[in-house]
Amino acid sequence: MELSTKTITALFIALVVLLITRGEYHNYEGTSHGVWRGELTTVTARGGMLSTTDGNFWVSDGSLCRHSLKGDSMIVLGHRRGMFVSPFSTRLKLSASPFASLRRLYRERLVETITHRSARGLTGGLLMGLRGMIPCSTADAFKRSGTAHLLALSGLHTGIVALVLLFLSRLLMGKGILSGWLVVLGIALFVTLSGGRASTVRAGIMASFAVLWMTHRGGKLHLLSVWWTALLLSLIFLPGTLEDRGAQMSYGAVLSLILLGKNLKGKHSALISPFYAGVVVTVSLAPLMSSVYGGFSYLGPVATVISLPFMLAMMAIGLLASLGVNQLNILLEIISSVWVTILQAFNHSPVSLPGTVLYPLWGILVLGLRVFSRWNRFNRRFR
């Protein structure tokens, strides 16, 4: 059943408010000494996020990236200041999952085959979500340009993998049912191998649903129904989805594109459409980004559009280089160096606005984007 415009808009606003206000809030004030036990949910070159029964704590230990991965268990003895823990000693228990073992093997393979550190880190981050391999200077360039989301495996990466798998399966097996289920199996394998983050799980469910729909039924796909299906399945199998900030951003970004996006046509659409999508996501998630990071990036949409060709090239060439095509190492190094240099030119401080200004302005901008998304005359200007 098709939802009315008023109903969709009301659902969107209600959900955004829910995403901003929902979450696990713990008292991180003060300092203390103690022992914390939990599972690593994020590993970077600066440390890792440890999920415990008392909340999430950032363990400031750069050596974690050399041995640990997302999903490993750890005991930390250290000094806590707020939500940051400076460890005195740590004990790591590697995950026994076969998928974690494959991720470790791939990490070792990257170290053996790709010599340039930044290129190796970007390849591991873009293909397998190995963020711990990305040098701090490279990660800072992405963060300060508003493109840090490109380093975390997301719906964009999963969508690219799904399209490649769909192309290969149809090339080899045609458009039959078996071909569609083979693509779904490949998507599930990629999501699992990449660490099963909330954004990739969401994208995996939506991509799988779309592939099966095209295979079995055909016709136009109702994206809002697919979005709700992905959200409900995530809530069933991953109960902490609504409390996960990554999941909130992922689902919120896709919902904003469904409700406020616009299929621009014309000779300039290849540049305008990604830029407009970036503006929609930036505006829609501004309150959430401000509550998590203390501000939002205004140059992010432009930097993201410029980064897309570099990202695709790094994923394709990095995959071949990691498979042993050593001749591509120099090309991979050049691409990564040029990419990071360009992003450094977009270095800026995030915009931080008080709530009394942010929320009214956000409401006006969202309403304006909704009106613009329904205005068809705009397309004619670019034909």
Q: List the uncertain runs.
A: 21-25, 378-383
Question: Given the structure, what is the number of helices?
Answer: 16
Q: What series of H and E elements makes up the topology?
A: HEEEHEEHHHHHHHHHHHHHH
* Oligomer kind: single chain
Distance between the termini: 33 Å
Report the mean per-residue pLDDT as an integer. 83
Radius of gyration: 21 Å
Helix content: 55-70%
- Shape by Cα distribution: globular
Largest sheet: 5 strands, mixed, barrel
**Percentage beta strand:** 5-15%
- The number of distinct β-strands equals 5
Describe this structure in words.
The protein contains 16 helices and five strands. The chain has helices at residues 5-21, 64-67, 98-113, 117-128, 136-144, 155-173, 177-193, 198-216, 223-237, 245-260, 269-284, 286-293, 300-322, 329-344, 355-373, 377-380, and strands spanning 31-44, 47-52, 55-59, 73-81, 84-93. The chain has a five-stranded mixed β-barrel. It has 383 residues and is an alpha+beta fold. Among the domains are: 31-93, OB fold (Dihydrolipoamide Acetyltransferase, E2P) (Beta Barrel), CATH 2.40.50; 153-260, no CATH class. The protein is globular and about 60 Å long. A hairpin with a 2-residue loop joins strand 2 (47-52) and strand 3.
